[in-house]
């Protein structure tokens, strides 16, 4: 069962509205389980955990640009980590009380797909002290060829 709502937390619809059957056709089963069923890939399993390449990470579901490699840092947590999204309105943040924890879920603001969670106040030496902990399988890196 998809667990992703049709509306943003503020009640406005996601601009990219695609039926679940279409998402199922477009996404491979692993990506579908994370993006549309709010799953989590196993730690250290994702293709972008240690990636240092320069470029932009876009939503694997809808293709909108979400994060820049400039904001990626080594969190040693097993998932790609960013200290900020590319733009404040690129993602939406939703309180998540599943698994007996209070966490803040991060979704694509354009298509509503699940990306990961954001944690604050962990003491990382980043400009924001935020860690956007994002599943590799939710993203597609488009390298721009710069160093
Ligand atoms: Zn998206």
The overall number of domains is: 1
Uncertain runs are none
The average pLDDT is 93
Overall strand count = 9
Q: Give the C-alpha Rg.
A: 14 Å
Distance between the termini: 42 Å
Bound molecules: zinc ion
Shape by Cα distribution? globular
Main-sheet strand order equals 3-4-8-7-6-5
Based on helices, strands and strand pairing, what is the structural class? mainly beta
Percent helix range: under 10%
- By DSSP (H or I, 4+ residues per run), the number of helices equals 2
Order of helices and strands: HHEEEEEEEEE
CATH architecture: Beta Complex
Description:
By secondary structure, the chain is mostly beta strands. It has a single domain, classed as Metal Binding Protein, Guanine Nucleotide Exchange Factor, Chain A (Beta Complex), CATH 2.170.150. Helix content is 10%, strand content 29%. Strands 3-4-8-7-6-5 form a six-stranded antiparallel β-sheet, with no helix packed on it. The chain has a three-stranded antiparallel β-sheet with strand order 2-1-9, with no helix packed on it. β6 and β7 form a beta hairpin. The protein starts with 19 loop residues before the first helix and ends with a strand. The model has no long low-confidence stretch (mean pLDDT 93). Bound molecules: zinc ion.
